[in-house]
Amino acid sequence: MERITVTNDLSFSRIVHGAWRLNDWNYTTEQTVSLIEHCIEQGITTFDHADIYGGYTCEELFGRAIQANPGLRKRMELVTKCGIVLESPNRPEHKSHHYNTSKEHIIRSVENSLSSLKTDYIDTLLIHRPDPMMNPEEVAEAFSELKDSGKVRTFGVSNFKRHQLNMLQSYLDDKLITNQVEVSAYELENIQDGTLDLCMEHRMPVMAWSPLAGGAVFSGNGEKAVRLRDTLTKVGAELGTEDISEVLYAWILKHPATIMPIVGSGKTARIDSAVRALGHKLSLDQWFEILHASMGHDVP
Amino acid sequence: MERITVTNDLSFSRIVHGAWRLNDWNYTTEQTVSLIEHCIEQGITTFDHADIYGGYTCEELFGRAIQANPGLRKRMELVTKCGIVLESPNRPEHKSHHYNTSKEHIIRSVENSLSSLKTDYIDTLLIHRPDPMMNPEEVAEAFSELKDSGKVRTFGVSNFKRHQLNMLQSYLDDKLITNQVEVSAYELENIQDGTLDLCMEHRMPVMAWSPLAGGAVFSGNGEKAVRLRDTLTKVGAELGTEDISEVLYAWILKHPATIMPIVGSGKTARIDSAVRALGHKLSLDQWFEILHASMGHDVP
Amino acid sequence: MERITVTNDLSFSRIVHGAWRLNDWNYTTEQTVSLIEHCIEQGITTFDHADIYGGYTCEELFGRAIQANPGLRKRMELVTKCGIVLESPNRPEHKSHHYNTSKEHIIRSVENSLSSLKTDYIDTLLIHRPDPMMNPEEVAEAFSELKDSGKVRTFGVSNFKRHQLNMLQSYLDDKLITNQVEVSAYELENIQDGTLDLCMEHRMPVMAWSPLAGGAVFSGNGEKAVRLRDTLTKVGAELGTEDISEVLYAWILKHPATIMPIVGSGKTARIDSAVRALGHKLSLDQWFEILHASMGHDVP
User: Fold this and answer.
1) Contact map slice: B 159-218 vs C, CB within 8 A
2) Which residues cross the membrane (chains A, B, C) (predicted)?
3) CB contact under 8 A, C95 and B285
4) Does any domain span residue A141?
5) Is C2 strand, coil or helix?
6) What is the pLDDT of residue A211?
């Protein structure tokens, strides 16, 4: 599988696996190991986490798989996030839902992630959401300590708009290596508002969450969903597939911003569908036909 | 006529002639030559084209005038554009309406423009619209080849917002020399959203399309059109003219972004009206009175 | 009181006094002197003006206090603004409401301010509003002359968005030292649209006008006002105060952009309330609870 180089000694697989709903799948540790091994066999070596996924449980479940099969760790890149505070039985000290990007919170969050994931380093740590209370000097100090101690190799952000990314970057010694944002043929905001343009200006590859738009395209009855589904089905037929998720992935993969879609499924068939998308090459006609179906009108 | 310097060896006339509707005028080649000569006599030496104008016909019609009178070429600057793909009997290979800013398309489009315009160089090539699929590395390669071969002297963009312009510029060796956008007293978007501010930050003069708002001000019955027309008429009376198009041009010309209005008329009287506008100097009171009429309220 | 360093030899007090409504208070010169002395005793040494405040009267009223007690000048920093033109009996030459940021107007405005304020230097001059007709080269020339002559020590802007600030800065030799904008828990625009992010990127402290939202929170009956007032009251109780203005100031003061609230009151009790806010430390839970009450929903 194609790999995306982010630093001299770190690259991601073009398709990333997301552990967002790992807790929902009720897998045994053996099943989780199998899922991870299936991904790696397909070339998907990058796994995306966040401290809060599954109410602070998913890192732990994934970590048990690593513990059961320690050789896995060296064959993968681990991405995780911090900065959101949720009320949860697993974090009784949390009194309300808010953000916390203080130095203390970032470092504590990483310590928890390392412990849960049963690893001694994170490949990439992301600030999960732009925090209106973010003190960039504190973030810079936290990143610096975590890097110096070897606990985190690289840093990035998630859901940042241009001004937020430029502001934080100006306080950091190292380049932020990715911005993980929502992008799909259904959800065009980050394509249209300049977020992807800024990432390209910074030569920063993008990770896409909800690349399938969370199911809206598959089952939605709204005009936009129906219009887009019809067009995806038509283009799929031209490409020789009845699986419109392959077309949705292929649409993202063609974009010049070097987008790595995050596949958040526990089913090997759904994962293979994303991998197959790498083999489809949309024509410009097809790419714009899908864009037009999503927008409801042509480009000017 | 005032000239706007864009590089050491290229300048534009402050008023630009636009060949957008040349095909509609049904001129003989002799009439087109006369029109061009009239422009040049008035000091309008910069002519604006696009591959797609008139369904891919206007460059050809203009080129016949150059062919009939080859001395004209050295007395003018030719601007043309590429990047929009239209379905047209003149481009049977086009299967749908979309954008194409691939290296191959840009170079092929320029070859076509050179052939149609009967010239061996374009003074300025513009990317016609911001393309969500634009690969800036390919654009950079295309520009570089076209410049090295002498086929295009300088490059710019059209209808680009700030993030799009900054992104593309970051991949290019040479400065983009203009951004051609819609600007008029009626259509304030590019004044209000920071597009002109960015051009000023880059010391990049602006070309204005639809400087008369495509007739909306002259004949519109909407509140905004009536309000603006009344104010333009009043200011025109103060300046000693009954021609509100002169006031519309003068309003743009006073803006500090160094805006070159594109006059898209085939009638010498309309062209002369733009030239006369250079002689009007609006006061700040008058400039803001027109702005307020367009916005429907005062500045804060 | 905490001081905010803006250059090697200039700092502001964290709380700034605003003379916007000085004319409305109908103070004798003695009362104005008392007010100023009260501020200075509390550590508030920075006083914010504009040429237009009170219909071009407030600088004069303040200047009488300085004239009556010349020792005051050395104990304070004077900020004033220019660039708005208002019709007023005090400026019979003004024929309409508009902006004027020409070199001539800026310099004339400063001469008037110096004469009214009875001082021979302004610590900081701000361009009051982003002017769509601003010629940045003229502004740069005006600033340069005013600095060289010793009449103005530093320069800033007010109500500028990112593109306007970046554009003007690119023409200036010296850094703009502040952007004075509306910020409060009620009015979040400049927090949400990236204006404060850009100020942080430029390491530029911010002055906040209407930090109490002009009374909307205290007496408004709209859903937002009621919701915010209830939350401020609750948080106030947690902090041990019944004065929600202290909570509003504390909310701003906690923001990492280094915001200096401008207190526009002539009553010592209201001024002391702002000073007391410096002693309150909101928790992150409290800060976000107030944010959520203002937005009407949680952060994502």
Assistant:
1) 162, 191-192, 194, 197-198, 200-201
2) none
3) yes
4) yes
5) coil
6) 97
The nearest CA of chain B is from the CA of A127 a distance in Å of 23
Rg of the Cα trace of chain C?
19
Q: Are A52 and A63 in contact (CB under 8 A)?
A: no
**Which tokens hold the place of A291?**
């864009």
CB atoms within 10 A of CB B150: 9
Query: How large is the angle between the packed helices B29-42 and B268-277, nearest 10 degrees?
Result: 10
CA distance B24 to A18: 56
Q: Hey, CA dihedral for A90, A93, A99, A105, is it positive or negative?
A: negative
Chain A residue with minimum CA distance to C256: A135
Query: Among candidates C42, C60, C38, C47, which has minimal Cα distance to C17?
Result: C47
Q: What is the mean pLDDT of chain C?
A: 97
Residue A99 neighbours by CB under 8 Å, 6+ apart: A83, A84, A85, A128, A129, A131, A132, A133, A134, C284, C288, C299
Check residue C185 and give its pLDDT.
Answer: 98
Q: Bridge-partner residues for A57, per DSSP?
A: none
Instruction: Using alpha carbons, select from C77, C20, C81, C78 the residue that is nearest to residue C266.
Output: C20
Q: What's the mean pLDDT in A253-262?
A: 98
pLDDT value of residue C118: 98
Residues of C annotated as catalytic (active site), given as ranges: 53
Q: CB–CB of A215/A176 below 8 Å?
A: no
Pairing relationship of beta strands B152-158 and B122-127 according to DSSP bridges: parallel
User: What ipTM does this complex have?
Assistant: 0.96
Give the CATH number of the domain where residue C260 resides.
Answer: 3.20.20.100
Q: Does C23 map to a domain?
A: yes
Render pLDDT for B133-174 as a digit per residue (tens, 0 to 9): 999 999 999 999 999 999 999 999 999 999 999 999 999 999
CA atoms of A120 and A151, how far apart (whole Å): 6
CA–CA dist A37, C9 (Å, integer): 63
Residues β-bridged to residue A82:
A127
Alpha-carbon gap, residue A291 to B140, rounded angstroms: 25
pLDDT in tens, A214-234: 889 999 999 999 999 999 999
Could you list the beta-strand ranges (E) of A91-215.
Answer: 98-99, 122-127, 152-158, 179-182, 206-209
Q: What is the pLDDT of residues B47-76, one digit of tens each?
A: 999 999 999 999 999 999 999 999 999 999
Residue C208 DSSP code: E
Contact A260, A252 (CB under 8 A): no
Q: Is residue A198 part of a domain?
A: yes
Tokens 């743009």 correspond to: B252
Do the domain assignments include residue B31?
Answer: yes
Q: Do the Cβ atoms of A95 and C255 come within 8 Å? A: no
Give me the number of domains chain C comprises: 1
Is the minimum CB–CB distance between B95 and chain A shorter than 8 Å?
A: yes
Looking only at Cα atoms, what is the longest distance across chain A? Answer: 56
Interatomic CA distance for residues B38 and B47, integer angstroms: 13
Confidence of residue B40 (pLDDT cuts 50, 70, 90): very high
Flag if B132 and A191 touch (Cβ within 8 Å).
yes
d(CA A251, CA A235) in angstroms, rounded, equals: 10
SS3 C209: strand
At residue C169, the pLDDT reads: 98
Using one digit for the tens of pLDDT, what is the confidence trace for B236-293? 999 999 999 999 999 999 999 999 999 999 999 999 999 999 999 999 999 999 999 9
Tokens of C112: 């008037």
How far is Cα B145 from Cα B174, in angstroms, rounded to an integer? 13
Chain B contact probe: residue of A197, A198, A259 with most B CBs at under 10 A = A197
Which residues of A fall within a CB distance of 8 Å from B164?
A: 194, 197
Is B127 in CB contact (< 8 Å) with chain C?
Answer: no
3-state SS, residue A262? strand
Q: Domain range spanning residue C162?
A: 3-219+246-282
